[in-house]
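Let's inspect a concrete specimen:
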Amino acid sequence: ATCGHGCKYGECMGPNKCKCFPGFTGKTCNQDLNECGLKPRPCEHRCMNTHGSYKCYCLNGYMLMPDGTCASSRTCAMVNCQYGCEEVKGQVQCLCPSGGLQLGPNGRTCIDIDECSTGKAVCSHNRRCVNTFGSFYCKCQLGYELKYSSGRYNCADVNECVTNTHRCNLHAECLNTQGSFQCKCKQGYQGSGFDCA
């Protein structure tokens, strides 16, 4: 799969076909998707579009709940939670809208859990983990690209010698390896393969 124009916020899935990451759109995934304009509307009261995502807000006297709805709650409003709260037996507790977020030390704001460094995220073979706010996604390792074969997508080795993306010397041979390549000076020349004399 080669995408001549590239896929800015997405992955190349076929000849000039991009699969955009959530929150992005367009032929080359270079445009931000305005989630606030979607039907059904993602927020009950007010919605603000952000780069690659969106934020919900509630009218005065209402509190944002983790599911995006707005609930009237005097006690909750007094606690001033970032995303919403619940009242259990008269106790008010702030909530976070995703499993990839946890309550910060102040008990009101939500902080991101880096699933990539905690080991919670498991990416399949030849994929690397990329952390996002509240979640993560898996991307092909460097030297691999997403290919569709036998009814599924896999990260396949990029043959740099064929795609001509190697940096071997004019007097060197390119040898493809899994996820990379090697350069070897031709007979009668010596050097690193990137420099041959």
